[in-house]
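Need tokens for this chain, all 250 residues.
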Amino acid sequence: MCRHLAYVGPACALGEVLTRPEFCLVRQSWAPRRQGHGTVNADGFGVGWYAEGDPLPARYRRTGPVWADASFADLCRVVRSAAFLAAVRDATDGCAGGEAAVAPFTAGRWLFSHNGAVTGWPASVSEVAARALSARELLEVEARTDSALAWALVRHRLRDGAAPARALSRVAVQLAGAAPGSRLNFLLTNGRTVAGTAAGESLWYLHRPGASLTVASEPHDADPGWRQVPERHVLAGDAAHVELILLEEL
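Here are the structure tokens for all 250 residues:
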């Protein structure tokens, strides 16, 4: 299990969203309020962000708990961005460790993370992987984890031209069919838009029309504008507009 968050809106210091709010992502690493499985997210953390004038994101990922990394606090204080995605990790049994296993995963302009677990990993989804991915794509999987495989499946669909929300929803349905009971909350951004799935765990969003969109595992403050994404729905949006669609309808 994990906690994650994506933001698009006016450029701000990362810390304004990730470290300063009362129930920020850093606090969620040791005291999540709405996490249904697991209690502490101390198996790694990462953040990816977009610098002005560069379409490709930068990443900072580490394998230890986020609260023990003084460099992350400094980074969040000085780095400003109009779009970023961050996650804290609670590793799934049977999945590899190391920095390569920590979200966000990336390819080109995309940043991706997964909050949840694939039941019966890896046997339950071995046939799905073999049917859906080429040998090259399998070799490109960054780590031996359920999240990295989910990203490979999503990336495959994006490369085939699928819209972000459809790519996420089709992979969530695909993995749920092969491994019933899986928790498949995904987040995906290209620096302008955000897509996310609610499938087995909570997903919330704070939309300030025309200004910003924050999508997260749980609200990080007491703002009354937070709304929950209904179970088995996908969110697709940007600072101007948000749409919620049943997974099976995409």
